[in-house]
Amino acid sequence: MAAEAHAAPVHHATSTGTDNRKLLMWLFLASECLFFGSLIASFLVFKARMVLPPFPHAREIDSSLLAGLPEVIQEQCAHVVSDTLVECHGILDIPVTSASTFVLLGSSLAMVLAVYGAQHSRPGMMKAWLLITALLGLTFLGFQVYEFRTFGSEGLNLSTNQFGASFFVLTGFHGTHVGVGVVYLLSLLAASFRRNGLGPEAGFHVETAGLYWHFVDIVWIVIFTVLYLIPS
Amino acid sequence: MATAAGTLPQYGTHTGLWSWITTVDHKRIGTMYLVTSFSFFILGGIEALLIRSQLAVPDGNVIDAELYNQLFSMHALTMIFLAVMPMAAAFFNWMIPLMIGARDVAFPRMNALSYWLYLFGALLLTSSFFFTAPNSGWFAYAPLTTLQYGPSQAMDFYVVGLLILGISSVAASLNFAVTIINMRAPGMTMMRLPVFVWMTLIIAFLLFLALPPLTVGLIQLLFDRNFTTHFFIPDGGGDPILWQHLFWVFGHPEVYILILPPMGIISEVIPTFSRKPLFGYSAMVFAGIAIGFMSWAVWSHHMFTTGLNPIPRAIFAANTMLIGVPTGIKIFNWLGTMYGGNIRFNTAMLFAVSFIPLFTIGGISGVMHSSPPIDGQHQDTYFIVAHLHYVLVAGAVMGMFSGLYYWFPKMTGRFLNETLGKWNFWLMFAGVNLTFFPMHFLGLAGMPRRIYTYADGMDWGFWNAVATIGAFTLALGVLFFIINVFASLRKEPTASDNPWDAPTLEWATSSPPPEHDFDVVPPVRARDPLWYDRDHGIARPEPTDEHIHMPPPSYYPILLAAGVLMLGLGPLSSLAVTALGVPVILYAIWGWALEPTH
Amino acid sequence: MRQFVGMRRAIAAAAFVLLAFGLAACSFSDAPQTTIAPRSDNADSIQSVYVIVFWLAVVVFIGVMLATIVFALMFRERADRQAKQFHGNARLEVLWTLIPVIIVVIIAVPTFNSLAETSAAPPEDALHVEVIGHQWWFEFRYDNVGGVEQVVSANELHLPVDRAVDFTLKSADVIHSFWVPQLGGKVDLVPGHENDLWFTPNTVGEYLGQCAEFCGDSHALMRFRVFVHSQADFETWAQNEASDAVEPTDEAIMAGQAAFLGNACIGCHTVQGTTAVGQVGPNLSHVGARTTLAAGIMDNTPENMANWIRNAPSIKPGSIMPAFPALSDEDLQAIVAYLQSLK
pTM of the full predicted structure? Predict the structure, then answer.
């Protein structure tokens, strides 16, 4: 086993003093910034040009545009403003998503505590908070499944309009990242039950996982602000 | 070590197919990259020869429109993604650890993973020839790529192939960035790094930052084709111009990803054979960094004719012109390096020196159509074809050949034959100019790109015939290289550690190097360390008995790559294959993480 | 001494290359689709920038090539020579940073001038033409000519000399590009977008154009022609183009009309004044007056037309117009005769 070869934590001599693996994670996250940046940019391109409901936020449109749309979507635009204008309500449920955002933020706090436990040789604390972090991540994913199903029942899917396409692809890829993070954390948790736990580098391993987890969390803050909080 | 006969050099005690499959040695991975990328270079060349045969005369009927469109698309994809980029990766793999005084890259297994992903992605993309190969150009402008106008699976191969190759490139670029930043020998400060290493570091950053926008574009195209979205379909509210932006935000840095490594190579070769230090090292490095930064602010010059407003056109034009400044600095500095030297003209040096005026042709024609009005005439004509091939063939490929002749003794312990080398060089030199210079004339005479035929009476026939003759001359030159390699590998290894009296660290170990690269990592006291040691009478340190630990072989990289390939095969066959890929990936990652490496 | 001979040879070679450049530059102004023989204000504006940039490029190239050759010969390996060990020269490096900067400025100023000229608003009295790209032909819709609101035609664009033409550029399917090199720079036809281009042709004549953005199988066969007429000739053409198609009087041609109207033709093609009102393919009301067929790829002869109708995809791969193998030879000849009569 990797851990058995060394009695003390390993210090790899590097030119900068930063561990190779941590540097790798930082550079990888830089790459990920461009990935989510491009997805968010695509969303913003289409946000400015949305014509047909469902809309993310309430908006008035020409009532003639409703002709031919499914009933479930027409119902969203029942509020008549004038002869030619109707108001469509936005389908984003900001209170619910605020709650799920709060859950994800909380998971970052739990992650910090897991890192603390790992770095201060308190494996019990580390295991408990790793588990809690993963569970909070799963809760967030549960919210996302609920949200996707609700939108589906309101007639929004990948092909409905550009909002649907860019919303599901962007948040779907974010959700996938959360899912990968959950598997990552649970793998660390499982490995920590081996005879030597996570070995002498436990603090390092959990900290690196934490970098990823916090990044995914921060991306969500950006998505929540851009998609949910800033009205069309 | 390293004296075993055979076509490929052997290292240590590991032999046999399995040792290659499981190797994590950067030199062996470099050799695999080199052999694979050269094979695809030949394939791309054959595609080019078919194209040139069809265009040799007006109304040619060697191949039909459908096949022609696949061939010109695959020629670009093959040359860019399967030949030139991975050939640069071969040099990174072989030389970067040696040049910075490291025993391997930072992540040897991830390095193997990059190679296997490249191989699988390349085979997948190429296998599309059995069905319909991608036929919408390497730029794949929507909506031609959407289901309505491209109902065959050609574009699915394109999407999946490029996604897999993209993962490979990101993994490799992260690996090399970490290696260069973190694994330098004692005394090897950043401003003592060889220029080739600097250029590699710059393109590593370009790669892992530029590929994500392309990845997003590919994912959106994948969704448009398979999951009912309309990102690029105008009828559903989508915008084909969005694809162009995502593609060129990647595509322009990509141009520098292709040209900076050869620029790095000739920055090693020219000082060595001029027997004097590189002129203006700092300017060279900062020019490279400037090119790297500026390559992000010029992508829309590929889109001057799409109806972009005049103000952005002016801004992108100005940025594009400005990128000529650091490029010009580099050209002058190479000339400055030759000035006052005692220049030895062997084949490596001939290729390197020819790079200077040939690349200049591609560079200045680039500055010409940085002007949007001129671009209005040149865009999508053979003038652009001439320009890009002067940059990528007369520039990048000639630079790579310089590197092959220069480093072949280090890689194999054997010299390439100089007589065959001269034939190789002069045929390629003549071929390049015969093929691509007339294309300037064709462009000026109004010949558009990507046309499978043209009418008699357009006055395009003569120069097309010349270009075709040139292409076959070029191919003959490459044939001489292949003969040279096989002939040279049969010879006894006679190369000393530093046969060229070169200044950089890769020459401070045996040719070829032992598995652990250096018996003792040499301390670095100056830029051009070996010349410093030579001039100050400092001998190489004696080997010690210290045990050198090298990472053991691993089969998890190829397994993980196979899992990713299965993931990608899903959209081409059944999503069940994708589902099967997930457990393979998870198994490989877990096995990888738990595998002992000490 | 040897190196002097070498240098003289190098300079002679450079002079030869310069000459070759000059000759090459001139000889391509005669090609039918040349980019360097401007015949409109827009193309003139481009040419004025191009000429400056071209000669700058030649000078830079000659300079770099001379330096490479001269240095290569001057500093060739010699047993008695020692390489001079120096790392740089601050003054020189500043100088050759400034050289490209100056070149760039020399290019930028006329570029921005030309950009401003060509993207200014068109004159009020400009003729307005809508260009719609199709796989693989061009549709032209003229506003207010020949006394009607809109005249629809295809593949042959007729323009009056010395009057500005303001184009609105669209696409019906994929991205194409509208390009008549002698009359101006190209602009893409992008589905979902409307692009603009205007120019004023200044010389009567016939000019070739071609689609310049890859648009699928038969991209190479998407060509068109521009006829720049005197004002009077343009009026004559417009009057004719605006009128309904000629009603046949000859019996054979009447049979052709009946065959045309009785077959699948009318699903895609329009002939003004008849029951053929299809919108998929080119408007054929005056097809007999056109000089070419199938987007400029062959002369408009009865034989070519018959071959085209019989099997269009064999001539233009991927063509939306299908083959008509079941059409009788008699009907085919009659339809050709009818279409040829539509002057």
Answer: 0.94
